[in-house]
């Protein structure tokens, strides 16, 4: 039965669709929070103007990638500290540098200025100015209480004018590698004057990082169909494999796949939309049916691979085939292949096989010539090339 190229395509597209199983929706990166150890009373300074022993908070950070895209610190002041101008809070990654002062000497405009006497009571979150522009200096200007809330990191006092300018935080840590991020972060809170005291009952470091690069591989990059007879359909497949380290599915949309080149019409895509879960692998079939003699080349290209930033951004596979002249049908009346149809050799051997005589017995008294000069060679030719039933 001869099927048209289009019907072949339809059959194998259905097969390919069944081959690909849609996976779960892509996972999204989420911020990770790390609770502090070492909370307690902030040691008071023995002498005003000189920083006392810091309260050292530790955050054990694990499982983070790089680069960091957001850094936030939340401090719960309980009991309340009654003089924010005394305090300086400095955040350091595992290596100790670079460091960021979240706030320091709020309200201080000169070297000897005491700063704001407003209290810190409750939860305060310190963030990069890209997240919030609320300024703790402005909030402390009333001199009674700094309202709980979210505040931008600010430059430490003394400053010439208030409020102090805001300072970056996330960009300072963005250059850290994953190895430099994971480990023990520290937050030192120092008090630089006597009398006013307070403590930290709870603290959290929240980090967010860019998801790791989503990757896939294509093998082979050149799909070779070898020599194919004109108008004969043949199939080949290449394999697409998603990296096991991926955190999102990779989507290849069939509508974004095209075949280009002078011989594009002699190749066809036999797969539909593909969704690859992390670590998954699938074979994607292609077809080749040449309509004329000669070497044939084309290029399969799939653009718009998702998610954004996946590597490679474009799936590309070279398609190569050769269209040859169909082989002539075998001469099934020349059993031994010597070019002569001899009734006392070829004909007699065929007749005996038809009578159910086994090949060795059927060749009795018959001289078979090269290239099929044994009963077994001649019988195999008859069975494989001519569809002849050969008795056991």
Helical residue percent?
Answer: 10-25%
Number of helices: 7
CATH superfamily of the largest domain, by name, is: Galactose-binding domain-like
Structural class: alpha+beta
Major sheet summary line: 11 strands, mixed
The CATH topology of the largest domain turns out to be Jelly Rolls
**Number of beta-strand segments:** 21
How far apart are the first and last residues' alpha carbons, in Å? 29 Å
- Sequence of secondary-structure elements: HEEEEEEEHEEHHEEEEEEEEEEEEHHH
Principal-axes geometry comes out as rod-shaped
How many structural domains?
3
Note poorly predicted spans.
1-28
CATH class of the largest domain: Mainly Beta
- CATH architecture label of the largest domain: Sandwich
* Beta-strand residue percentage: 25-35%
What does this structure look like?
14% of the residues lie in helices and 35% in strands. The relative contact order is 0.15. Mean pLDDT is 90; it is low at 1-28. It has three domains: 5-27 and 213-324, Immunoglobulin-like (Sandwich); 32-209, Galactose-binding domain-like (Jelly Rolls), CATH 2.60.120.260; 330-392, no CATH class. The protein has helices at residues 5-19, 136-139, 170-173, 178-181, 343-354, 359-362, 375-386, and strands at 32-37, 40-41, 55-61, 68-81, 87-92, 100-104, 119-127, 145-146, 149-152, 183-191, 199-209, 216-219, 222-229, 234-242, 250-252, 257-260, 267-269, 274-276, 281-288, 294-302, 315-324. It is built from seven helices and 21 strands. The protein is rod-shaped.
């Amino acid at each position: 039965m001869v099927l048209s190229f289009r019907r072949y395509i339809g059959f194998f597209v259905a097969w390919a669709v069944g081959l690909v199983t849609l996976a779960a929706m892509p996972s999204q990166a989420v911020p990770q929070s790390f609770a502090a150890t070492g909370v307690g009373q902030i040691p008071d300074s023995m002498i005003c103007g000189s920083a006392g022993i810091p309260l050292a908070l530790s955050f054990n950070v694990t499982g983070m990638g790089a680069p960091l895209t957001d850094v936030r610190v939340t401090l719960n002041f309980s009991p309340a500290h009654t003089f924010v101008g005394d305090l300086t809070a400095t955040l350091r990654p595992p290596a100790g540098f670079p460091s960021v002062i979240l706030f320091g000497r709020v309200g201080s405009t000169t070297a000897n200025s005491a700063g704001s006497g407003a209290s810190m009571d409750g939860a305060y979150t310190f963030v990069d100015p890209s997240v919030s522009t609320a300024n703790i200096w402005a909030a402390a200007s009333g001199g009674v209480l700094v309202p709980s809330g979210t505040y931008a990191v600010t430059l430490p006092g003394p400053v010439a004018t208030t409020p102090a300018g805001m300072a970056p935080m996330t960009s300072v840590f963005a250059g850290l590698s994953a190895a430099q991020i994971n480990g023990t972060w520290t937050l030192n809170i120092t008090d630089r004057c006597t009398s006013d005291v307070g403590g930290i009952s709870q603290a959290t470091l929240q980090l967010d990082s860019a998801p790791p690069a989503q990757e896939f591989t294509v093998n082979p990059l050149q799909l070779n169909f070898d020599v194919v007879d004109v108008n004969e359909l043949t199939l080949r497949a290449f394999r697409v494999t998603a990296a096991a380290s991926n955190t999102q599915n990779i989507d290849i949309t069939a509508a974004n796949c095209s075949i280009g080149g002078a011989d594009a019409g002699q190749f066809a895509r036999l797969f539909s939309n593909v969704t690859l879960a992390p670590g998954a692998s699938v074979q994607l079939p292609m077809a080749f049916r040449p309509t004329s003699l000669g070497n044939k080349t084309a290029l399969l290209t799939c653009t718009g691979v998702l998610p954004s930033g996946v590597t490679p951004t474009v799936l590309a596979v070279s398609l190569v085939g050769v269209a040859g002249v169909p082989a002539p049908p075998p001469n099934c009346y020349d059993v031994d292949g010597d070019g002569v149809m001899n009734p006392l050799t070829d004909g007699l051997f065929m007749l005996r096989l038809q009578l159910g005589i086994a090949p060795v017995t059927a060749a009795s008294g018959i001289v078979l010539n090269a290239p099929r000069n044994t009963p077994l060679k001649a019988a195999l030719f008859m069975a494989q090339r001519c569809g002849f039933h050969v008795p056991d």
